[in-house]
Amino acid sequence: xxxxxxxxxxxxxxxxxxxxxxxxxxxxxxxxxxxxxxxxxxxxxxxxxxxxxxxxxxxxxxxxxxxxxxxxxxxxxxxxxxxxxxxxxxxxxxxxxxxxxxxxxxxxxxxxxxxxxxxxxxxxxxxxxxxxxxxxxxxxxxxxxxxxxxxxxxxxxxxxxxxxxxxxxxxxxxxxxxxxxxxxxxxxxxxxxxxxxxxxxxxxxxxxxxxxxxxxxxxxxxxxxxx
Length: 227
Fold this sequence. Notes:
The protein has helices spanning 2-6, 20-30, 42-59, 70-86, 99-120, 122-127, 139-182, 187-226, and strands spanning 13-14, 17-18. The protein is globular. The longest helix has 44 residues, at 139-182. It has one domain (7-226). It has a two-stranded antiparallel sheet with strand order 1-2. Strand 1 and strand 2 (17-18) form a beta hairpin. The chain has eight helices and two strands, in the order αββααααααα. With 227 residues, it is mainly α.
């Protein structure tokens, strides 16, 4: 029984073709493209308003040099948000529950921020490894600690996103299974469990949105340190 709970996190295949590729490309199909008319419909207007508001909020703490990343970070946010929300639908697969995918997103972006910092301002970037005013005996220890914390950043990004989504999906499946089993035995308890399941689903929708935002926000903070 315990193995069945984790089957939902296995990457499905059909005729030897991994369906994760379809799950990764399908969100982009759902977004409408702006028409050539002067006036857009309500859906495109709402989509443009959301993207503009998020981009302004994201670029608020960044220097003008970091505004070049606006398109990339906004696209990543929309991509993660779409995948997380679509994964809450029944009979769907959530690619962001795979640590390999999240690390594949976190490591290149983190590495790009580090390379930009080393290329543009190497002294300031290396200065983050040693706080000002550090006593001489503690210098080697602090350099080692700060270096380890620097390399842990992409791991924390990937594990945070994976753990939050995996825990939410497991909890939803456990409560849904309990409600289904209790329905013929104790109807009142089953209805109460179904109510909890509904509230938990609303919470998971919020978690899916927040985790996508936190992932991109932390990347923007890493970028701010290096531009």
